Protein backbone atom coordinates (compact mmCIF):
# COMPACT_ATOMS: atom_id res chain seq x y z
CA UNK A 1 0.00 0.00 0.00
CA UNK A 2 1.53 3.26 -1.16
CA UNK A 3 -1.20 5.79 -0.41
CA UNK A 4 -0.29 9.32 0.55
CA UNK A 5 -2.34 12.47 1.06
CA UNK A 6 -1.49 16.16 0.89
CA UNK A 7 -2.68 18.94 3.18
CA UNK A 8 -2.82 22.65 2.31
CA UNK A 9 -3.91 25.36 4.71
CA UNK A 10 -7.17 27.06 3.75
CA UNK A 11 -5.83 30.58 4.33
CA UNK A 12 -5.25 33.05 1.50
CA UNK A 13 -1.45 32.77 1.75
CA UNK A 14 -1.67 30.38 -1.20
CA UNK A 15 -3.67 31.74 -4.11
CA UNK A 16 -6.65 29.82 -5.48
CA UNK A 17 -4.73 29.32 -8.71
CA UNK A 18 -1.84 27.69 -6.85
CA UNK A 19 -4.15 25.58 -4.66
CA UNK A 20 -5.84 24.22 -7.77
CA UNK A 21 -2.53 23.69 -9.54
CA UNK A 22 -1.02 21.82 -6.58
CA UNK A 23 -4.15 19.70 -6.19
CA UNK A 24 -4.16 18.85 -9.90
CA UNK A 25 -0.49 17.88 -9.77
CA UNK A 26 -1.12 15.68 -6.74
CA UNK A 27 -4.03 14.11 -8.61
CA UNK A 28 -1.84 13.36 -11.63
CA UNK A 29 0.88 11.90 -9.39
CA UNK A 30 -1.51 9.39 -7.84
CA UNK A 31 -2.01 10.99 -4.45
CA UNK A 32 -4.85 9.49 -2.46
CA UNK A 33 -6.45 12.64 -1.05
CA UNK A 34 -6.35 16.39 -0.61
CA UNK A 35 -7.00 17.71 2.91
CA UNK A 36 -7.60 21.12 4.39
CA UNK A 37 -8.70 22.36 7.79
CA UNK A 38 -10.01 25.57 9.21
CA UNK A 39 -9.20 27.94 12.03
CA UNK A 40 -9.20 31.69 11.32
CA UNK A 41 -8.91 31.41 7.52
CA UNK A 42 -11.49 30.14 5.06
CA UNK A 43 -13.82 27.27 5.88
CA UNK A 44 -12.72 23.82 4.81
CA UNK A 45 -15.77 22.81 2.77
CA UNK A 46 -15.70 25.75 0.38
CA UNK A 47 -12.03 25.14 -0.41
CA UNK A 48 -12.67 21.42 -0.90
CA UNK A 49 -15.55 22.20 -3.23
CA UNK A 50 -13.20 24.32 -5.33
CA UNK A 51 -10.67 21.48 -5.46
CA UNK A 52 -13.39 18.95 -6.28
CA UNK A 53 -14.39 20.99 -9.32
CA UNK A 54 -10.84 20.88 -10.72
CA UNK A 55 -9.76 17.28 -9.98
CA UNK A 56 -10.93 13.82 -10.97
CA UNK A 57 -9.64 11.21 -8.54
CA UNK A 58 -8.37 12.93 -5.40
CA UNK A 59 -10.48 12.23 -2.36
CA UNK A 60 -11.40 15.34 -0.44
CA UNK A 61 -10.74 15.39 3.28
CA UNK A 62 -12.09 17.94 5.74
CA UNK A 63 -9.38 17.65 8.29
CA UNK A 64 -10.50 18.82 10.63
CA UNK A 65 -13.75 20.56 11.34
CA UNK A 66 -14.50 20.95 15.02
CA UNK A 67 -17.55 19.61 16.83
CA UNK A 68 -18.46 22.90 18.50
CA UNK A 69 -18.97 25.45 15.71
CA UNK A 70 -21.57 23.52 13.66
CA UNK A 71 -24.48 21.29 14.58
CA UNK A 72 -24.16 17.60 13.68
CA UNK A 73 -27.08 17.94 11.28
CA UNK A 74 -25.35 20.75 9.41
CA UNK A 75 -22.08 18.81 9.24
CA UNK A 76 -23.97 15.81 7.83
CA UNK A 77 -25.69 17.98 5.21
CA UNK A 78 -22.44 19.68 4.23
CA UNK A 79 -20.32 16.55 3.86
CA UNK A 80 -23.15 14.87 1.92
CA UNK A 81 -23.28 17.86 -0.42
CA UNK A 82 -19.52 17.63 -0.99
CA UNK A 83 -19.84 13.89 -1.63
CA UNK A 84 -22.57 14.45 -4.21
CA UNK A 85 -20.68 17.23 -5.98
CA UNK A 86 -17.44 15.20 -6.06
CA UNK A 87 -19.19 11.98 -7.09
CA UNK A 88 -18.28 10.06 -3.98
CA UNK A 89 -14.88 11.43 -2.95
CA UNK A 90 -15.60 13.05 0.43
CA UNK A 91 -13.96 12.22 3.75
CA UNK A 92 -15.05 13.85 7.02
CA UNK A 93 -12.40 14.64 9.60
CA UNK A 94 -13.69 15.60 13.05
CA UNK A 95 -11.97 16.85 16.17
CA UNK A 96 -12.59 18.86 19.28
CA UNK A 97 -9.99 21.54 18.46
CA UNK A 98 -8.99 23.37 21.63
CA UNK A 99 -10.21 25.83 24.21
CA UNK A 100 -8.50 28.85 22.60
CA UNK A 101 -10.15 28.27 19.22
CA UNK A 102 -13.55 27.18 20.49
CA UNK A 103 -14.07 29.74 23.25
CA UNK A 104 -12.07 32.74 22.07
CA UNK A 105 -12.83 32.53 18.36
CA UNK A 106 -16.24 30.85 18.21
CA UNK A 107 -17.57 32.08 21.54
CA UNK A 108 -18.78 28.61 22.53
CA UNK A 109 -18.00 26.92 25.87
CA UNK A 110 -15.34 24.22 25.48
CA UNK A 111 -17.04 21.52 27.53
CA UNK A 112 -17.01 17.71 27.38
CA UNK A 113 -15.11 17.38 24.07
CA UNK A 114 -14.94 13.58 24.21
CA UNK A 115 -18.64 13.03 24.91
CA UNK A 116 -19.57 15.65 22.33
CA UNK A 117 -17.43 13.97 19.66
CA UNK A 118 -19.14 10.64 20.37
CA UNK A 119 -22.60 12.15 20.06
CA UNK A 120 -21.69 13.99 16.86
CA UNK A 121 -20.43 10.82 15.21
CA UNK A 122 -23.56 8.91 16.21
CA UNK A 123 -25.90 11.60 14.84
CA UNK A 124 -23.90 12.16 11.64
CA UNK A 125 -23.83 8.42 10.94
CA UNK A 126 -27.61 8.18 11.33
CA UNK A 127 -28.18 11.21 9.13
CA UNK A 128 -25.87 10.04 6.36
CA UNK A 129 -27.56 6.62 6.34
CA UNK A 130 -30.68 8.36 5.04
CA UNK A 131 -33.16 7.37 7.71
CA UNK A 132 -34.96 9.52 10.28
CA UNK A 133 -32.83 10.83 13.12
CA UNK A 134 -34.63 10.57 16.43
CA UNK A 135 -32.02 11.29 19.02
CA UNK A 136 -32.27 12.18 22.68
CA UNK A 137 -28.74 12.87 23.81
CA UNK A 138 -26.80 14.94 26.26
CA UNK A 139 -26.14 17.76 23.81
CA UNK A 140 -28.83 17.36 21.13
CA UNK A 141 -32.45 16.31 21.16
CA UNK A 142 -33.65 15.70 17.62
CA UNK A 143 -36.97 14.55 16.26
CA UNK A 144 -37.59 13.27 12.72
CA UNK A 145 -34.67 15.03 11.09
CA UNK A 146 -34.04 13.42 7.72
CA UNK A 147 -31.75 14.28 4.85
CA UNK A 148 -33.47 14.19 1.47
CA UNK A 149 -30.14 14.36 -0.40
CA UNK A 150 -28.01 11.45 0.85
CA UNK A 151 -24.34 11.09 -0.08
CA UNK A 152 -23.10 9.02 -3.00
CA UNK A 153 -20.95 6.78 -0.82
CA UNK A 154 -22.77 4.14 1.16
CA UNK A 155 -20.51 5.02 4.09
CA UNK A 156 -18.71 8.36 4.08
CA UNK A 157 -15.45 7.76 5.98
CA UNK A 158 -15.22 9.60 9.30
CA UNK A 159 -11.73 10.24 10.65
CA UNK A 160 -11.00 11.57 14.14
CA UNK A 161 -8.09 13.74 15.23
CA UNK A 162 -6.89 12.39 18.58
CA UNK A 163 -3.79 11.83 20.70
CA UNK A 164 -5.06 11.59 24.29
CA UNK A 165 -5.69 8.09 25.73
CA UNK A 166 -9.48 8.36 26.02
CA UNK A 167 -9.82 9.94 22.61
CA UNK A 168 -7.70 7.17 21.08
CA UNK A 169 -10.08 4.58 22.52
CA UNK A 170 -13.03 6.50 21.07
CA UNK A 171 -11.31 6.58 17.69
CA UNK A 172 -10.88 2.82 17.75
CA UNK A 173 -14.48 2.31 18.74
CA UNK A 174 -16.21 4.58 16.21
CA UNK A 175 -13.95 6.01 13.50
CA UNK A 176 -12.89 4.85 10.05
CA UNK A 177 -9.61 6.71 10.31
CA UNK A 178 -7.26 8.41 12.74
CA UNK A 179 -5.70 11.84 12.11
CA UNK A 180 -2.89 12.41 14.62
CA UNK A 181 -0.93 15.67 14.46
CA UNK A 182 2.74 15.84 15.56
CA UNK A 183 2.69 12.09 16.18
CA UNK A 184 6.06 10.78 17.37
CA UNK A 185 7.17 8.12 14.87
CA UNK A 186 8.53 5.89 17.63
CA UNK A 187 5.24 6.08 19.53
CA UNK A 188 2.99 5.18 16.62
CA UNK A 189 2.92 1.44 17.46
CA UNK A 190 1.88 2.15 21.07
CA UNK A 191 -0.73 4.68 20.00
CA UNK A 192 -2.11 2.20 17.47
CA UNK A 193 -2.33 -0.37 20.24
CA UNK A 194 -4.50 2.03 22.26
CA UNK A 195 -6.76 2.45 19.23
CA UNK A 196 -6.83 -1.31 18.79
CA UNK A 197 -8.04 -1.80 22.37
CA UNK A 198 -10.88 0.63 21.75
CA UNK A 199 -11.72 -1.16 18.51
CA UNK A 200 -11.74 -4.56 20.22
CA UNK A 201 -14.26 -3.37 22.82
CA UNK A 202 -16.59 -2.48 19.96
CA UNK A 203 -16.05 -5.79 18.17
CA UNK A 204 -13.76 -4.19 15.61
CA UNK A 205 -10.11 -4.54 14.61
CA UNK A 206 -7.31 -2.00 14.30
CA UNK A 207 -7.31 -2.77 10.57
CA UNK A 208 -10.76 -1.11 10.43
CA UNK A 209 -9.09 2.22 11.24
CA UNK A 210 -6.86 3.93 8.67
CA UNK A 211 -3.85 5.50 10.39
CA UNK A 212 -3.39 8.86 8.66
CA UNK A 213 -0.88 11.07 10.49
CA UNK A 214 -0.24 14.63 9.41
CA UNK A 215 3.53 14.81 8.85
CA UNK A 216 5.36 18.11 8.36
CA UNK A 217 7.48 17.65 5.23
CA UNK A 218 10.11 19.74 3.49
CA UNK A 219 12.21 18.47 0.57
CA UNK A 220 15.14 20.87 0.25
CA UNK A 221 16.79 21.97 -2.98
CA UNK A 222 20.24 22.34 -1.42
CA UNK A 223 22.14 23.03 1.84
CA UNK A 224 20.96 26.62 2.20
CA UNK A 225 17.35 25.65 1.56
CA UNK A 226 17.71 22.79 4.05
CA UNK A 227 18.68 25.26 6.76
CA UNK A 228 15.71 27.42 5.79
CA UNK A 229 13.30 24.49 5.89
CA UNK A 230 14.60 23.35 9.26
CA UNK A 231 14.03 26.80 10.73
CA UNK A 232 10.49 26.91 9.36
CA UNK A 233 9.77 23.58 11.02
CA UNK A 234 11.19 24.69 14.37
CA UNK A 235 9.19 27.92 14.21
CA UNK A 236 6.00 26.02 13.41
CA UNK A 237 6.52 23.50 16.20
CA UNK A 238 7.26 26.25 18.72
CA UNK A 239 4.02 28.01 17.80
CA UNK A 240 1.96 24.88 18.41
CA UNK A 241 3.71 23.93 21.65
CA UNK A 242 3.92 27.41 23.12
CA UNK A 243 1.02 29.27 21.60
CA UNK A 244 -1.86 26.82 21.12
CA UNK A 245 -2.90 26.02 24.67
CA UNK A 246 -2.02 22.77 26.41
CA UNK A 247 -3.01 20.10 23.88
CA UNK A 248 0.21 19.97 21.85
CA UNK A 249 2.35 20.82 24.87
CA UNK A 250 0.89 17.76 26.62
CA UNK A 251 1.33 15.62 23.52
CA UNK A 252 5.05 16.39 23.21
CA UNK A 253 5.47 15.93 26.96
CA UNK A 254 3.89 12.47 26.79
CA UNK A 255 6.24 11.64 23.91
CA UNK A 256 9.27 12.10 26.18
CA UNK A 257 10.03 15.77 25.50
CA UNK A 258 8.67 17.31 28.70
CA UNK A 259 11.73 19.44 29.46
CA UNK A 260 12.04 20.67 25.88
CA UNK A 261 8.32 21.44 25.69
CA UNK A 262 8.52 23.41 28.93
CA UNK A 263 11.48 25.38 27.61
CA UNK A 264 9.52 26.19 24.45
CA UNK A 265 6.48 27.27 26.46
CA UNK A 266 8.52 29.42 28.84
CA UNK A 267 10.27 31.22 26.00
CA UNK A 268 7.03 31.69 24.09
CA UNK A 269 5.25 33.07 27.14
CA UNK A 270 8.08 35.57 27.55
CA UNK A 271 7.58 36.74 23.97
CA UNK A 272 10.94 35.29 22.88
CA UNK A 273 9.97 33.53 19.68
CA UNK A 274 13.50 32.81 18.47
CA UNK A 275 14.46 31.24 21.80
CA UNK A 276 11.27 29.17 21.72
CA UNK A 277 12.15 27.79 18.27
CA UNK A 278 15.73 27.11 19.36
CA UNK A 279 14.40 25.04 22.27
CA UNK A 280 12.96 22.53 19.79
CA UNK A 281 15.62 19.82 19.91
CA UNK A 282 16.99 17.89 16.94
CA UNK A 283 15.45 14.73 18.39
CA UNK A 284 12.02 16.36 18.58
CA UNK A 285 12.30 17.47 14.98
CA UNK A 286 13.53 14.09 13.74
CA UNK A 287 10.73 12.22 15.51
CA UNK A 288 7.79 14.05 13.92
CA UNK A 289 8.95 15.58 10.63
CA UNK A 290 10.34 14.65 7.21
CA UNK A 291 13.21 16.91 6.18
CA UNK A 292 16.16 16.63 3.81
CA UNK A 293 16.94 15.88 0.20
CA UNK A 294 14.17 14.24 -1.83
CA UNK A 295 15.87 10.88 -1.31
CA UNK A 296 16.17 11.42 2.44
CA UNK A 297 12.54 12.49 2.63
CA UNK A 298 11.38 9.33 0.88
CA UNK A 299 13.44 7.24 3.28
CA UNK A 300 12.04 9.05 6.31
CA UNK A 301 8.49 8.70 5.05
CA UNK A 302 9.09 4.96 4.64
CA UNK A 303 10.04 4.84 8.32
CA UNK A 304 6.66 6.33 9.22
CA UNK A 305 4.99 3.65 7.11
CA UNK A 306 7.04 0.94 8.85
CA UNK A 307 5.95 2.36 12.20
CA UNK A 308 2.30 1.94 11.24
CA UNK A 309 1.17 4.85 9.05
CA UNK A 310 -1.30 3.60 6.44
CA UNK A 311 -1.98 6.99 4.85
CA UNK A 312 0.68 9.58 5.69
CA UNK A 313 -0.57 13.08 4.91
CA UNK A 314 2.17 15.47 3.85
CA UNK A 315 1.72 18.95 5.25
CA UNK A 316 4.06 21.91 5.18
CA UNK A 317 5.44 24.39 7.71
CA UNK A 318 4.14 27.92 7.82
CA UNK A 319 6.17 30.04 5.41
CA UNK A 320 6.94 27.24 2.96
CA UNK A 321 6.61 28.70 -0.52
CA UNK A 322 4.68 27.22 -3.41
CA UNK A 323 7.92 26.06 -5.05
CA UNK A 324 8.94 24.05 -1.98
CA UNK A 325 5.45 22.56 -1.72
CA UNK A 326 5.59 21.44 -5.34
CA UNK A 327 9.09 20.04 -4.90
CA UNK A 328 8.01 18.10 -1.82
CA UNK A 329 4.91 16.52 -3.36
CA UNK A 330 7.00 15.52 -6.39
CA UNK A 331 9.57 13.92 -4.08
CA UNK A 332 7.00 11.99 -2.01
CA UNK A 333 4.64 10.92 -4.79
CA UNK A 334 3.67 7.23 -4.91
CA UNK A 335 6.66 5.34 -6.25
CA UNK A 336 4.76 3.45 -8.92
CA UNK A 337 3.50 6.68 -10.43
CA UNK A 338 6.35 9.10 -9.91
CA UNK A 339 9.35 6.93 -10.76
Key terms for this structure?
TIM Barrel, 50% helix, 2 domains, two-stranded antiparallel ribbon, alpha/beta, 339 residues
Topology:
Blueprint: E1 5-7, H1 16-28, E2 33-36, H2 44-52, E3 59-66, H3 72-85, E4 90-95, H4 99-105, H5 113-128, E5 133-136, E6 141-145, E7 158-160, H6 165-174, E8 177-178, H7 188-201, E9 210-211, E10 214-219, H8 223-243, H9 247-269, H10 273-278, H11 282-288, E11 289-292, H12 294-307, E12 313-315, H13 322-332, H14 335-338
Parallel strand pairs: 1-2, 1-12, 2-3, 3-4, 4-7, 7-8, 8-9, 10-11, 10-12
Antiparallel strand pairs: 5-6
Helix pairs in contact: 1-13, 2-3, 3-5, 6-7, 8-9, 12-13
Specify the overall morphology. Answer: globular
How much of the polypeptide forms β-strand, as a percent range?
5-15%
Output the strand order for the largest sheet: 9-8-7-4-3-2-1-12-10-11
Q: Percent range for helical residues?
A: 40-55%
CATH class of the largest domain: Alpha Beta
**Second CATH tier, the architecture of the largest domain:** Alpha-Beta Barrel
User: Spans with pLDDT under 50 lasting ≥5 residues?
Assistant: none
- End-to-end separation: 16 Å
Number of strands: 12
Biggest pleated sheet:
10 strands, parallel
Radius of gyration: 19 Å
Amino acid sequence: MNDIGVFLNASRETSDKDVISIAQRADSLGYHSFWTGEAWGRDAFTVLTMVACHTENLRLGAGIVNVFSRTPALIAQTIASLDILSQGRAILGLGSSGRIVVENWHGVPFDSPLARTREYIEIIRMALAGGPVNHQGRFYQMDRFRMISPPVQERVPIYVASLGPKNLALTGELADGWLPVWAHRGRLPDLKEAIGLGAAKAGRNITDVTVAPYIMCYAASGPEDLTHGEQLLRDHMAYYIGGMGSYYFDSFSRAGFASEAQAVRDAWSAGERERAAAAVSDQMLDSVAVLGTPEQCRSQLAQFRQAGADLPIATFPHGAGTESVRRTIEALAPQAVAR
